[in-house]
Each structure stands twice: as C-alpha cells, then as structure tokens.
Amino acid sequence: MLQLLVFDMDGVIVDTEYLDFQLQQAFVCLFSSSPNELSQQDFSILVGKSYTALYRCIKQLSQTSLSLETIDHQLEKFAAEKYQEVNYQELFRKDIVQILLYARKNHIKVALVSSFRYQHIIEVLTSCGIKEYFDLIVSGEDFAESKPNPAIYQVILEKLDINVENAVAIENSFCGIAAAKSAGLKIIAYEEKRMPVDQSQADMVAKDMIEIFSILQTLKESE
What Gene3D superfamilies does this protein map onto (predicted)? Predict the structure, then answer.
C-alpha cells in the first residue's frame, strides 16, 4: 500500500543540481594547479554530496592545502555571488503539484529529504509555493552523516510511522538513491543525462514529473 512519498529537492523538485555541479567545478578549478587534467568523471564525485563530504571532495580534486572550514567559507562566498540571480520559480518543476494534490486526495503522506540546510530548504519551498504540502521536512545538517547514509530516511519512516514497503523515494543523485536503497525504499530516479550520475540502483527511472506521476498512479491502482 502506497502511504508515503519522499522527495529529494535539489535536482528533483527544482532543477538546481546541474547548476550546483557547474558552480562546484568552477570552484575546484580556482584552486587546482592542473584543472585541465580533471575530467567530467572526476567531477562526478561532487554530485549529491552533503556539506562536509562535498568539502572533502573539493579538497581531493583541487589538491589544495586549504582547511575544510576555509573551503566552506570560500564556497559559501563564491556561491552567494553566483546565485544572486537564481530564480527558483523558473527552476521549479511545476508538474509536481499534480502529484502533491493526488497524494493529499489519497491520504498519502509527503516528506522531503535534502542535504541542504533547513533554512535554505524552507526558502526554496516557500518560493515555489509548495511548503504546506509536506508532512515532514528533514535536512542533512541534522545528521553526522547525510546521504548515502540511510539514517536520514530511517528517521522519516520512524517519525511518520510508515513501514518501509509502503514508501517510495524520488531521487536523482547516486548518494540519494544509495541512501534510499539502504533504507529499503522503492526508488524512482529522476533521469539526469547532463552529468555523469549512476542511477542504476533505482527501481525505475522517469524522464519528468509527468512520468513519475504515472508510475505512482500505477503503483496505487495495483494495490
């Protein structure tokens, strides 16, 4: 029985993952002594990482002597300058609204799980006008280890009192898919072809929200 949908935010609800990927690549190149030797496959380790894990990957790729704390501050400053012009409403995948309405009508709980800081999550959801649709919002900043550690998903299942076999995750990154898989959820991957992302652990792959909605309706009707 379908009782819970768990959405990732970055790269699923809003099309920001690729923007983040481009920004992080540019940031690595600022500090790398040999940026031209880095391939897209090298950069793929950045996708879907939470803050501390991301800083470690940046340090590894750039071979910089900067501390993780300094990388944190420098990246935040770099991102603030680049993201001044980001309009989340333009990046919002609006077809999710029909899924949210369907979930409400059919008494299916909806949660959001993201590696982003809680305040940023709220800002994005409020900007897109969908915050009130979520029964639970969980940020990776509250965990010692975020995705791919399954703890963030396990907490959602526990707080909403849902058996794992009745939950579906909608993710796009390797780390997010791996976290949901380890927690035992069924997974629909939002297809991503612009950057190297391993989505092979997902149970299904969908090209857009309309296709995801169709899959969810089929799952519900097959009960």
Answer: HAD superfamily/HAD-like, Putative phosphatase, domain 2
